[in-house]
């Protein structure tokens, strides 16, 4: 039987922050959902989907997921890039959701079944100073988390990305106006971060898995120094130590340290990380499922990673929707070389729109056993939260030069 695509719709909703969601409906009435959220560039993906992909999808066979992926990727001539790949990823997710629903099974069953019982997850802890950070970590531990990313303020700076004064969580994008500007001081950070992370390890004891995100800000020399100074902290990983596209330069960092390295939340295809994987310059590959072309393409990235003993650890901030998180969990459950899933959590308003069946218990996530991806969107609720422009902040050096971040 051929299951034809009858309609393709794009929903933009903003329950506390903006999400772009793709809805594909088949002629026999099955609805598949895809996430298409690209933080700060939401409308570009929405237009790509609405204006360029939707007309080409109507009337196609929804069951032909791989062929549709190739049709959208090869057919465009213009390849790769976050907007294109998020749009293709959204279609891919929606089609896997449809196939699961049509067959009455959760998507992880279609990927070969569970390769583990549950998916280890980490969340964020943030504090402007050490007491605030320790308090935030403690609260995360009480919630059951076994792995925590620790970020703190830097003396002399007003703001640090990923850290909100006095709060346990933060939202990366600010609403209204243009991007906020932050001032950054690498020397101050390099003096301060090792002290904080050593103090955190001393306080939490040996078992809690600790992670730290550098946000692409260092040179290979600075990154090597930082990693060496953190050897004794026993980090689970050090993330994004350098601009992610400088792949071969990571060798200089790698040669100096045994601290596990994670990179890749800004990557979109296997070609962006091929060198990092094949030369084993990283331990964890961070591509988000939707930003790297969906389940179909991320499985290929993970298959290449498996050859080099690199593990998957997808990006899972609050700025990709529960549809993406759920897709990531299906992949995580069914993939042997899967390391950990980031789970930043969501504002309570998000659950008014996205009804998810994934569960969290004792530091682990499970996607649930609903047919498909296990997330349904309440369209009436979505309509109550209209889009409102929001931007990620930018960072400048002390002399005003634009900074990588
Ligand atoms: C971060 C994110 O979760 C992470 O590791 O790097 O906060 C990231 O900066 C945002 O998702 C960007 O949209
Ligand atoms: Mg990150």
From TrEMBL:
Q: Which Pfam families match?
A: MR_MLE_C, MR_MLE_N
Query: What is the protein's given name?
Result: Bifunctional D-altronate/D-mannonate dehydratase
GO molecular function terms attached to this record: magnesium ion binding; mannonate dehydratase activity
SUPFAM superfamilies, per database record: Enolase C-terminal domain-like, Enolase N-terminal domain-like
User: Where are the membrane-spanning stretches?
Assistant: none
- Please spell out the taxonomic lineage of the organism that makes this protein: Bacteria, Bacillati, Actinomycetota, Actinomycetes, Micrococcales
Q: Which InterPro entries match?
A: D-mannonate_dehydratase-like, DgoD-like, Enolase-like_C_sf, Enolase-like_N, Enolase_C-like, Mandel_Rmase/mucon_lact_enz_CS, Mandelate_racemase_C, Mandelate_racemase_N_dom
| All residue ranges annotated as the Mandelate racemase/muconate lactonizing enzyme C-terminal domain in the record | 130-260
**Gene3D superfamilies according to UniProt:** Enolase-like C-terminal domain (3.20.20.120), Enolase-like, N-terminal domain (3.30.390.10)
């Amino acid at each position: 039987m051929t299951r034809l695509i009858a309609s393709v719709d794009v929903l933009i909703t903003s329950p506390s922050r903006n999400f772009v969601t793709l809805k594909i409906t088949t002629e026999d009435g099955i609805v598949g959902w895809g996430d298409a959220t690209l933080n700060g560039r939401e409308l570009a993906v929405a237009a790509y989907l609405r204006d360029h992909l939707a007309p080409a999808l109507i009337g196609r066979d929804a069951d032909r997921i791989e062929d549709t992926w190739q049709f959208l990727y090869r057919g465009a001539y213009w390849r790769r890039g976050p907007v294109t790949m998020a749009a293709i990823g959204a279609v891919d997710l929606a089609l896997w959701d449809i196939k699961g629903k049509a067959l009455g099974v959760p998507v992880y069953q279609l990927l070969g079944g569970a390769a583990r019982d549950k998916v280890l997850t980490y969340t964020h802890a943030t504090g402007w100073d050490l007491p605030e950070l320790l308090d935030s970590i403690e609260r995360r531990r009480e919630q059951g988390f076994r792995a925590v990313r620790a970020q703190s303020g830097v003396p002399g700076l007003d703001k640090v990305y990923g850290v909100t004064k006095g709060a346990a969580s933060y939202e990366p994008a600010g609403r209204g106006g243009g991007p906020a500007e932050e001032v950054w001081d690498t020397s101050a950070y390099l003096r301060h971060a090792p002290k904080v992370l050593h103090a955190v390890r001393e306080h939490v004891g040996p078992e809690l898995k600790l992670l730290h995100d550098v946000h692409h800000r260092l040179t290979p020399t600075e990154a090597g120094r930082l990693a060496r100074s953190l050897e004794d902290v026993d980090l689970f990983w050090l993330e994004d130590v350098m601009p992610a596209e400088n792949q071969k330069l990571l060798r200089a960092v790698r040669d100096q340290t045994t601290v596990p390295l994670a990179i890749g939340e800004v990557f979109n295809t296997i070609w962006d990380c091929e060198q990092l994987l094949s030369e084993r310059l990283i331990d964890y590959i961070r591509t988000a499922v939707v930003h790297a072309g969906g389940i179909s393409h991320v499985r290929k990235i993970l298959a290449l990673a498996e050859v080099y003993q690199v593990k998957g650890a997808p990006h899972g901030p609050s700025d990709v929707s529960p549809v993406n998180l759920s897709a990531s969990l299906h992949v995580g459950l069914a993939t042997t070389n899967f390391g950990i899933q980031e789970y930043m959590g969501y504002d309570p308003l998000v659950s008014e729109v996205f009804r998810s069946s994934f569960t969290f218990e004792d530091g682990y996530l499970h996607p649930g056993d609903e047919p498909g991806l296990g997330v349904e969107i309440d369209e009436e609720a979505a309509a109550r939260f209209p889009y409102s422009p929001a931007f990620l902040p930018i960072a400048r050096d002390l002399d005003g030069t634009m900074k990588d971040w």
